[in-house]
TrEMBL record:
The chain crosses the membrane at residues 53-73, 79-96, 126-147, 159-181, 201-223, 230-247, 253-273, 285-307. InterPro entries: EpsG-like. This is EpsG family protein. It comes from Companilactobacillus kimchii DSM 13961 = JCM 10707. Keywords: Membrane, Transmembrane, Transmembrane helix.
Length: 324
């Protein structure tokens, strides 16, 4: 991201100019909830670099990817799983989201890392990184639901109950957004956006959610989805996150909430592929076939979104100048 911003007047991402402006002015009053750690990071980079916003953007991007990679290591992903996970992370637009909702995607990565410690029962470290994530972006409070998912007994009954409960909640989306806005006033702009469509998520959220559900459903019927703690948790997280994408496709806020669950889809999918492939005698052929589907789907989604320039990912020019 930083490389693409080396020119004085070329930008990527819808929110980049806003974040750069806040960094250059060192404005600490915006979105008063959940920015203490972010403000500290911004102030530190400002002091160390004499206000170089290129370094600031590079740091945000680096940390976002770093915590995702560290999470893969914590979740004991092998080379194949890590390769597919990184491919999904990039091609399914998780990485490109960090060009726009920069604070939140950093919080998502840190919250993911915190969840890894929670899985290992290292609760103090989990709490530390969870609070750090909340200090970056208040929506990281959603990660508490991941902690709950880890603790609940995961079987067919709990899966059905969770899906029904979530579907009922999402059917009353404006009530959820109203409650969230009562705690964090910044999000009042998302109230009633489902009906108005003014802040619709767009970008094929429905198709992406259905694709993830298809993979999770296939894994459910062809593998033991509850065979291990990590596999069952990532399965649950993928299913619930997909429901957010499908039912909440007309709300940016719900899609943002979904990312705290779906960030585990890149971990789940390659493991599901391996388990499904092992059910067949020609497991290598099946494995290649499943991987090809994921690779083609990822490239198709990324191409579609880039061609339509969702989130202004394609570098664009601006008349705004920042003098230092």
């Amino acid at each position: 991201m930083s490389i693409l911003l080396t020119g004085d007047h070329y930008w990527i991402g819808t929110d980049t100019r806003q974040y750069v402006g806040i960094f250059l002015s060192q404005d600490t009053s915006f979105n008063g909830n959940g920015v203490a750690a972010y403000n500290f990071l911004s102030k530190t980079i400002w002091n160390l670099t004499n206000g170089n916003y290129h370094v600031f953007l590079l740091a945000l991007s680096f940390l976002t990817v770093l915590f995702f990679i560290l999470s893969l290591q914590k979740l004991k992903s092998d080379f194949f799983e890590s390769f597919i996970a990184v491919f999904i992370y990039i091609s399914f637009y998780f990485y490109f989201e960090s060009f726009n909702i920069q604070r939140q995607m950093l919080a998502v990565s840190i919250a993911m890392f915190a969840t890894c410690f929670f899985i290992e029962r290292k609760y103090l470290k989990a709490l530390t990184f969870f609070l750090l994530a909340v200090g970056i972006h208040s929506t990281a409070l959603i990660a508490l639901l991941n902690f709950a998912l880890i603790k609940i007994k995961k079987d067919k009954k709990s899966l059905v109950v969770s899906m029904i409960a979530l579907s009922i909640m999402l059917a009353n989306v404006n009530i959820i957004l109203q409650l969230f806005a009562e705690i964090f006033s910044h999000y009042k702009i998302y109230i009633s956006t489902v009906e108005s469509g003014s802040l619709a998520a767009g970008g094929g959220a429905l198709i992406l959610g259905l694709f993830f559900i298809l993979i999770a459903g296939t894994a459910f019927f062809m593998t033991d989805a509850f065979s291990s703690k990590i596999y069952s948790f990532t399965f649950f997280a993928t299913v619930l996150g997909s429901l957010f994408y499908i039912i909440g496709m007309n709300s940016q806020m719900l899609i943002r909430i979904a990312d705290y669950f779906l960030i585990f889809a890149p971990v789940f999918i390659p493991r599901a592929i391996k388990k499904i492939s092992n059910r067949f005698l020609q497991k290598n052929i099946v494995n290649c076939f499943c991987c090809a589907i994921v690779l083609i789907a990822g490239l198709t989604i990324m191409t579609y979104k880039l061609l339509n320039n969702f989130g202004d990912i394609v570098p664009y020019s601006s008349d705004i100048r920042f003098w230092m």
